[in-house]
């Protein structure tokens, strides 16, 4: 099933994998059930993996209080 990596804050698409790759090669088996629910959004024809882009990571490191918000202003 195709995967799309998206920043959880700014919604920027960071990458796509169109071919089928076993879950263990992606490292998803290391996630707890709670982390899986938070990070991986399953759809009928695609999986979306919520990550943090470099710009948002830098903003969070400089201003940790931004983690309280759903989106970051860039």
List keywords for this structure.
globular; 74 residues; 4-stranded mixed sheet; 27% helix; alpha+beta
Could you characterize what this model shows?
There is one protein chain. With 74 residues, the protein is an alpha+beta fold. The chain has one domain. It is built from 3 helices and 4 strands, in the order ββααββα. It has helices at 23-26, 33-39, 54-62, and strands spanning 3-7, 13-17, 40-42, 47-51. A 4-stranded mixed β-sheet has the order 2-1-4-3. Strand 3 (40-42) and strand 4 (47-51) form a beta hairpin. The chain is globular. The mean pLDDT is 88.
Strand content: 15-25%
The end-to-end span amounts to: 32 Å
* Major pleated sheet: 4 strands, mixed
Helix content: 25-40%
Total number of helical segments?
A: 3
Class from secondary-structure proportions: alpha+beta
Task: Give the topology string: H per helix, E per strand.
Answer: EEHHEEH
**Any idea what the shape is?**
globular
| Poorly predicted residue ranges | none
Domain count: the total is 1
- What Rg is obtained from the alpha carbons, in whole angstroms? 13 Å
Strand order of the largest sheet: 2-1-4-3
The total of beta strands comes to: 4
């Amino acid at each position: 099933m195709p995967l799309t990596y998206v920043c959880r804050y700014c919604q920027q698409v960071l990458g796509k994998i169109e071919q089928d790759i076993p879950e263990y090669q992606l490292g998803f088996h290391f996630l707890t059930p709670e982390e899986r629910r938070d990070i991986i959004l399953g759809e009928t024809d695609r999986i979306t993996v919520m990550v943090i882009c470099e710009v948002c990571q830098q903003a969070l490191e400089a201003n940790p209080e931004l983690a309280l918000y759903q989106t970051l202003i860039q």
